[in-house]
Amino acid sequence: MGSGWFKGGFMWLLIAVAAAVVLFTILSPSREPLPSISIDQVASEAKEGRIRKITVSGDDLTIERVDRTKATSRKERNVGIVETLRDLGVSEEKIEEIRFEIEGPSEWGNWLGLLSGLLPAIFVGGLLLLMMRQAQSSNSQALSFGRSRARLFTGDKPTVTFDDVAGVDEAKEELQEVVEFLKDPSRFTALGARIPKGVLLVGAPGTGKTLMARAVAGEAGVPFFSISGSEFVEMFVGVGASRVRDLFNQAKRNVPCIVFIDEIDAVGRHRGAGLGGSHDEREQTLNQILVEMDGFDTDTNIIVIAATNRPDILDPALLRPGRFDRRVVLDIPDMNGRKAILEVHTRGKPLDKDVDLMRLAKQTPGFTGADIENMVNEAAILAARRNKKTIGMAELEEAIERVIAGPERKSRLISEEEKRIIAYHEAGHALVIKMLPHCDPVHKVSIMSRGMALGYTLHMPESDRYLQPRAKFMDELSGLLAGRAAEELIFGDVTTGAGSDLEQATRLARKMVCEYGMSEKLGPLTYGHKEELVFLGKEIGEQRNYSEQIAYQIDQEVRNIITQAYDRAMEILKAHKDKLVEIAERLIEKETLEGEEFEAMFN
Predict the structure, then answer these.
(1) ∠ at Cα 558 (557, 561), nearest 5°?
(2) Active-site residue, selected from the candidate residues 426, 476, 487, 557
């Protein structure tokens, strides 16, 4: 801080001095240079009575003649002007006719002269001092390179508590014990119990792992150290380990406290894995974490909470009891959990009376807490854009579609012919989904472009489902292929609009055969073993543990499933062709059909 103040003060001093010099130069009256004459000529003119006044300023003389003309001259140092004139033969009568004025030296001139003399010295001295400070700062930065960059949040004013976390009740119960231990450790130690030294939060992105850790710190009211796993890793070997040591030293000075390491998979991956073998810096950092976590005293109230969405790639030594004893899973919330999350994120926001949070929860299967927060924020932005004072159901439902498919693209120009094809394509999806018993109810059908899609059919489940029967997969495949079947039935040709549908259908059919054992011909077996690079965290291929003959049979089964689903969709469309035409024409007219309006067409 002192170095920064010095740099700023020195620069302001230079600016102030330069401004003073410029100001003095501007404000000082500009005078034309007067002619200079010798002191002998002054004496000669004095003898002739031509001089009216002489102004003396030090050794400088300003001569004012009787005819109002002026000149300058100089006298001998330490000799008065009167004495000088006498010595040059000017009579006393002529001297008495001359008026003499004595002027003192100008203060501004003295200061300006002083500044002009000292300014170069000040500048050079300040420059040298600045260079010395920079050298000292570089040395201190080099010494602090291995220090921890963790951010400390005190527990005096908690910003997040368990009331701000919803949809993960089981995880909150697990972490409530951590809070109780930090508040009253004697309650556990009296029974010989040991609180878990580490808690690993596992969940998909957006499920609230970081938020949960902050809530634990807020509830316990203790210091909270937060750092990302990537902040330990540097180019130089040993820096990460040094930062780990410094982090835990800071934690020990602030006990009881919580150390939160976000994205720990950045440093906690399997040692010796990845491209090129080991990675010295990352492995040394991980080794230091292992030592610090297993070296705590039993009475040290430090709890390490880490978050990751890839627990499968973490080193086994990190997950063993004594380090991360407890694993808390934050899953994607169910319907009741989504309703609770909606209540949290709509708290304090003006909502219309017609807003039904349970209905919104039913329409958002698979949404994480982050998705729901984004959805509510998008709804608030839409309401503000429409100059509304409250957030209505229309804005919230449109926000759901924006999160799923993207914003509407009203500027996209589509010809009438293509609009007709899109209408029959989406009508085919909606009709087949409506007629099949295991498909979810249709929520909305639209031919308005949204994101990359030219049109879309939303069908939402009425409740959360965790087991998927084969009959449901077959119905879903027919629903996916119904758009292409409708194009073929009405126009006698197919378009590229079904490309995404075909990709999804093929992927689902292959999973049915190779992963779920739903093939009648191949039986209840799984085929193929996926290979992953731990260092990259990506699937790089699939190891075939079956023969070429089985591979051919797998392809045939996938083809049979797709063909069977396509034929079924075509049969439904042919049997209800009049309804297909009615839905498509209504879409061409209105562009969007809500679920209630769509259902009314079948009553």
Answers:
(1) 85
(2) 426
